[in-house]
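Are you able to produce any protein sequence you like plus the matching backbone structure tokens because I've never seen that pairing?
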Amino acid sequence: MRRAGLGEGSSGHYVASGYSVHEEENEHLQEGLRNKVSALKSLTIEIGTEVKYQNKMLDDMDSDFDSTGGLLGATIGRVKQLSRGSQTKLLCYMLLFCLFVFFVLYWFIKLR
């Protein structure tokens, strides 16, 4: 009596080679999966590095903005102090100077 797939001679060789083909295919698929996993891992590491770099850049920009805000706040504070004191004449001169610069720039742009 013969069992299906378990024969003598060449049939036994066929069963063993069939198993080998499936085993090779599985190993090939496993290798492809390993490559994809390693690519995803390296991509994830690169994304993490980029996020850290972007966060550092944002922190640097925030500190620059804060220092600019501090400088602007100090300047506005000085202007308010000038307006509160008896130096209204100086504030008036400063305002007239700003208007003069504005009109000179306007005239220069209009002639272009």
About this structure: The mean pLDDT is 77. The longest helix spans residues 10-84.
